[in-house]
């Protein structure tokens, strides 16, 4: 310790000496000539900070040396002119020790990130002096209270204190931080109530996370001021009382996590208001606002107003009565979790109409009634848990339509009847629990055919008859079978009685048999011989055909849709069903036997490597789910035929609307929405999907519109289907389209997230100029980008698409400059100068918000 202090003192002295010498031209390394005093303060603060660290790996010891300008020290960024420290980002560097209050002297600091630095002290009160601070991130392992002085940081946009040991209350002083967009205090030991006015002025907040603390009292009503909120997390706390109705004023909310907030009570709002309110789409156009202000009569409390909601998590509270019908209006909902409450109604029919729903958990309530037939409408569902309720009736035959289902739990209800034959279509099922019901009949053979099924619980029903062989039954345990009527067979370890081929004859039967037996033996003998001969012939025939091998391969690959079904649905690939053709193959419109209209992309696959990776790649594509991506519904593959079954888009492509006479007029805000939608889909593919999926061929003809004119990106990941991981194989002539292809992709054949960003930038520039990058006017050195760059930023009106003039703005340039800036940044020739898709989304959101003001 003494040595550290000594070293620090020496460094301080050295720094002082060097910096005081800056007026002479000889010793310049530390700072330039300007603002010497300010820089002095910054160096002193940094060295004082360093002096209190243990720096176990000596990282700062080796790097923060007097020989280099402090602006080049690890984690330090400076303003260019004044050479003042603007950012200190040492996140994930193991520093250990205590955090120095002297950091509060870095008066130009705008970003401080000391997350995961193993510092252990409390947050210094002096941080309240960083009045230019915009981003504060301190995760692991700060302790003590959140200093009330942070309420002075009026520039603060983001405060991230996730995963610390912070205790005490959330200081009410934070209510003055009117620029906050992001608050994350999750997983601390915060207690007490949340100040009732805390959210009165923080109306720009997008993200609020107070989860996993011990906060108590009611959720403050002022939360209703957060009109821009997109994600709300209050779960795992000790809140009580009713949910404030103002929550349902947050019309942009996409995620609401209130699970185990501990005893929130009341009904889920919305069930008993007799008024209907318009559902606000996420669109900041002035008209929407005026509708909201209109809003006489009682407090609007209909959950159906939150129509942007994608996730609603209300489990483990004390909600009672009914689930409101309005839940069915939340058409973007992907997850609905209301388990462990006291709800006692029938399940509203409308829930089963939510075609986007992926996960539904209503377990551990007192829900009554039957499973309705239209459960089959849940076309995207992966997981259904309705266990521990009071459901009655039989299993609807439409269950078989849930072909994307992986997890089904209906245990602890009173469902009767037998398993419907149609359930044999649930080939993607991984886990099925139907224990503690009243099911009768035999166990269907098809369960043994479900290749993914690894968990099956049939215990405590009234099932009888033989256990099927193979598949999940090979390793099934007795616990999954006990409590049934009369099961037999199975592995010897199960100790079920062996199955008898005939029912044990009664005395009465004995007498009949005595007469019939000889005849029976003769007839059976003859029939058996006949069948045997027929089977031999059949087997012989099949051996000679490739079809049988194909069948085996498709079974292994779990294709849900058969080749036969595809042929039928496309009317044998008839020309009238042809939607388009490209280098990868043709696309047909088709109608499946369940009535669903789909697009079938038949791939020209010749490369042997592609054939090998097709199924694993398809699996990845099928997992990619986003509202702005075309869904890959299914695949079909055998040795010489490969097809993707896709969501059908009835409203054509951006290419047609932009460049043909029949196209619809796309206004400014609509074009912005399209680019925002596309950016969100791309951001998802690049960062949020299970693995990074590159598009490699983004262009207007790959941006398609659904019935509501919402844009969906098509053809993502196709390049990888063809070439596997070996990006260097992707050569310019094979994928990518001239004009949209990044220069490095074209020349070296290297695809990356940045090459996708380039294509995105070109599409954006095209959309707002109405000019294709391949327009004949772009000859020689002049490209679309160069043409725009020359007009930027003052003459953008000259190059924008004339058709946009139909929209009236009072300030065109305020709109066009930021838009074209994004396009230009994305399409920079140098890959590392381009924006990331993440930044594009953020930037476009901002532009969209400001659009409302300038229109
Ligand atoms: C930081 O500022 C305070 C108050 O102005 C001062 O007492 C302290 O010495 C400064 N710390 C450093 C390291 O300069
Ligand atoms: C300190 O780290 C920065 C950033 O990694 C690096 O650019 C610089 O060269 C390093 N300086 C020394 C002296 O190692
Ligand atoms: C701070 O660092 C953490 C950990 O590396 C990172 O996840 C977070 O995004 C950073 N926050 C900011 C504002 O840079
Ligand atoms: C800091 O946090 C890590 C995990 O985040 C934990 O393993 C470690 O024990 C903590 N250290 C202290 C001193 O609390
Ligand atoms: C900062 O906040 C504290 C406590 O809230 C207050 O006493 C102090 O006056 C504030 N300082 C400045 C410079 O605003
Ligand atoms: C918020 O700011 C106002 C004006 O700057 C100040 O008067 C008030 O005390 C502050 N409130 C809190 C709780 O810090
Ligand atoms: C909640 O906090 C506890 C300890 O405070 C921690 O172990 C747990 O992982 C946290 N859960 C989440 C979801 O952050
Ligand atoms: C905060 O807003 C509530 C209404 O939500 C209002 O009653 C209260 O007076 C406001 N408080 C302040 C300090 O503005
Ligand atoms: C929060 O609730 C939990 C579980 O009900 C309880 O153990 C804990 O003591 C409560 N904490 C506070 C601060 O009320
Ligand atoms: C919802 O917002 C409107 C408009 O600001 C307001 O008049 C109304 O009181 C709010 N309702 C609730 C429940 O906060
Ligand atoms: C909810 O859906 C029903 C039926 O589809 C419709 O009548 C009602 O107007 C919708 N309500 C809202 C708020 O959109
Ligand atoms: C199981 O799969 C095989 C091979 O695809 C098929 O012949 C058989 O009919 C299936 N059995 C059931 C009960 O679906």
From TrEMBL:
Residues 1-16 form the signal peptide. Transmembrane segments: none annotated. PANTHER family: OS04G0122200 PROTEIN, OS11G0695000 PROTEIN. Belongs to the protein kinase superfamily. Ser/Thr protein kinase family. Keywords: ATP-binding, Cell membrane, Glycoprotein, Kinase, Leucine-rich repeat, Membrane, Nucleotide-binding, Phosphoprotein, Receptor, Repeat, Serine/threonine-protein kinase, Signal, Transferase, Transmembrane, Transmembrane helix. It is found in: Cell membrane. InterPro entries: Kinase-like_dom_sf, Leu-rich_rpt, Leu-rich_rpt_typical-subtyp, LRR_dom_sf, LRR_N_plant-typ, LRR_R13L4/SHOC2-like, Plant_receptor-like_S/T_kinase, Prot_kinase_dom. One of its GO terms (molecular function) is ATP binding. ATP binds at residue 601. It comes from Paspalum vaginatum (seashore paspalum). It is a single-pass type I membrane protein. Residues 573-855 form the Protein kinase domain. The keyword Flavoprotein does not apply. It catalyses: L-threonyl-[protein] + ATP = O-phospho-L-threonyl-[protein] + ADP + H(+); L-seryl-[protein] + ATP = O-phospho-L-seryl-[protein] + ADP + H(+). It comes from the Eukaryota. This is non-specific serine/threonine protein kinase. Its EC number is 2.7.11.1. SMART domains: LRR_TYP, S_TKc. One of its GO terms (cellular component) is plasma membrane. PROSITE patterns: PROTEIN_KINASE_ATP, PROTEIN_KINASE_DOM, PROTEIN_KINASE_ST. GO terms for biological process: detection of stimulus.
């Amino acid at each position: 310790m003494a040595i550290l202090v000594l070293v620090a003192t020496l460094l301080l002295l050295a720094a002082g000496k060097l910096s005081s010498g800056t007026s002479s031209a000889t010793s310049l390394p530390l700072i330039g000539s300007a603002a010497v005093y300010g820089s002095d303060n910054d160096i002193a603060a940094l060295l004082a900070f360093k002096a209190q660290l243990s720096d176990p790996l000596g990282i700062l010891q080796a790097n923060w040396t007097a020989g280099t300008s402090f602006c080049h020290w690890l984690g330090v960024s400076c303003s260019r002119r004044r050479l003042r420290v603007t950012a200190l980002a040492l996140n994930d560097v193991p520093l250990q020790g205590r955090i120095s209050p002297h950091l509060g002297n870095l008066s130009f600091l705008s970003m401080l990130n000391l997350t995961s630095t193993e510092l252990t002290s409390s947050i210094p009160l002096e941080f309240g002096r960083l009045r230019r601070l915009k981003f504060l991130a301190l995760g692991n392992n700060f302790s003590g209270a959140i200093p009330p002085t942070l309420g002075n940081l009026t520039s603060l946009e983001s405060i991230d204190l996730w995963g610390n040991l912070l205790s005490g209350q959330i200081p009410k002083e934070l209510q003055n931080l009117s620029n906050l967009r992001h608050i994350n205090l999750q997983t601390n030991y915060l207690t007490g109530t949340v100040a009732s006015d805390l959210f009165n002025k923080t109306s720009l907040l997008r993200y609020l996370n107070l989860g996993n603390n011990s906060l108590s009292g009611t959720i403050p009503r002022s939360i209703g001021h957060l009109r821009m909120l997109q994600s709300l997390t209050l779960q795992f706390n000790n809140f009580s009382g009713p949910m404030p109705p103002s929550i349902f004023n947050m019309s942009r909310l996409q995620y609401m996590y209130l699970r185990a907030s501990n005893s929130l009570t009341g009904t889920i709002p919305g069930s008993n208001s007799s008024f209907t309110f318009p559902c606000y789409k996420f669109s900041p156009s002035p008209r929407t606002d005026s509708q909201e202000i209109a809003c006489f009569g009682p407090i609007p409390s209909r959950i159906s107003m939150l129509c942007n909601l994608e996730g609603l998590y209300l489990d483990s509270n004390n909600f009672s009565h009914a689930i409101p019908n309005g839940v069915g209006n939340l058409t973007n909902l992907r997850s609905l979790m209301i388990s462990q409450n006291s709800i006692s109604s029938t399940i509203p029919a409308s829930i089963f109409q939510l075609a986007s729903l992926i996960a539904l958990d209503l377990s551990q309530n007192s829900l009554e009634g039957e499973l309705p037939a239209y459960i089959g409408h849940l076309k995207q569902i992966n997981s259904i848990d309705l266990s521990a309720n009071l459901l009655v009736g039989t299993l609807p035959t439409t269950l078989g339509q849930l072909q994307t289902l992986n997890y089904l739990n209906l245990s602890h209800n009173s469902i009767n009847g037998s398993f419907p034959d149609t359930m044999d279509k649930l080939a993607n099922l991984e886990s099925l629990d139907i224990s503690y019901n009243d099911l009768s009949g035999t166990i269907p053979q098809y369960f043994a055919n479900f290749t993914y099924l690894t968990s099956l619980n049939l215990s405590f029903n009234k099932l009888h008859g033989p256990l099927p062989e193979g598949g999940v039954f090979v390793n099934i345990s007795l616990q999954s079978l006990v409590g049934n009527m009369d099961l037999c067979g199975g592995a010897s370890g199960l100790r079920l009685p062996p199955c008898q081929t005939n029912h044990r004859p009664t005395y009465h039967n004995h007498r009949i048999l005595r007469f019939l037996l000889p005849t029976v033996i003769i007839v059976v003998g003859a029939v058996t011989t006949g069948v045997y001969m027929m089977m031999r012939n059949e087997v012989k025939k099949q051996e000679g055909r490739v079809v049988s091998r194909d069948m085996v391969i498709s079974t292994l690959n779990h294709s849900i849709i058969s080749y036969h079904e595809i042929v039928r649905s496309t009317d044998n690939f008839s020309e009238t069903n042809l939607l388009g053709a490209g280098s990868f193959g043709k696309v047909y419109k088709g109608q499946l036997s369940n009535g669903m209209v789909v697009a079938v992309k038949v791939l020209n696959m010749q490369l042997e490597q592609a054939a090998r990776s097709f199924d694993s790649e398809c699996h990845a594509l099928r997992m990619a789910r986003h509202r702005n991506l075309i869904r890959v519904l299914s695949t079909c593959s055998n040795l010489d035929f490969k097809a993707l079954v896709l969501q059908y888009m009835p409203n054509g492509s951006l290419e047609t609307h932009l460049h043909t006479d029949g196209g619809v007029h796309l206004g400014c805000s609509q074009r912005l929405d399209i680019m925002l939608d596309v950016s969100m889909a791309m951001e998802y593919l690049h960062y949020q999907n299970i693995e990074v999926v590159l598009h490699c061929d983004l262009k207007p003809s790959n941006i398609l519109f659904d019935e509501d004119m919402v844009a969906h990106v098509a053809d993502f990941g196709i390049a990888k289907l063809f070439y596997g991981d070996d990006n260097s194989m992707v050569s310019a002539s094979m994928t990518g389209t001239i004009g949209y292809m990044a220069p490095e992709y074209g020349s070296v054949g290297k695809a990356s997230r940045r090459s996708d960003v380039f294509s995105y930038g070109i599409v954006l520039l095209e959309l707002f100029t109405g000019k294709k990058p391949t327009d004949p006017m772009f000859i020689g050195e002049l490209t679309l980008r160069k043409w725009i760059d020359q007009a930027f930023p003052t003459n953008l009106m000259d190059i924008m698409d004339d058709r946009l003039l139909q929209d009236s703005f009072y300030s065109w340039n305020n709109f066009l400059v930021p838009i074209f800036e994004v396009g230009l940044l994305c399409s920079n020739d140098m890959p590392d100068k381009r924006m990331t898709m993440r930044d594009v989304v953020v930037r476009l959101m901002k532009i969209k918000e400001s659009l409302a003001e300038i229109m």
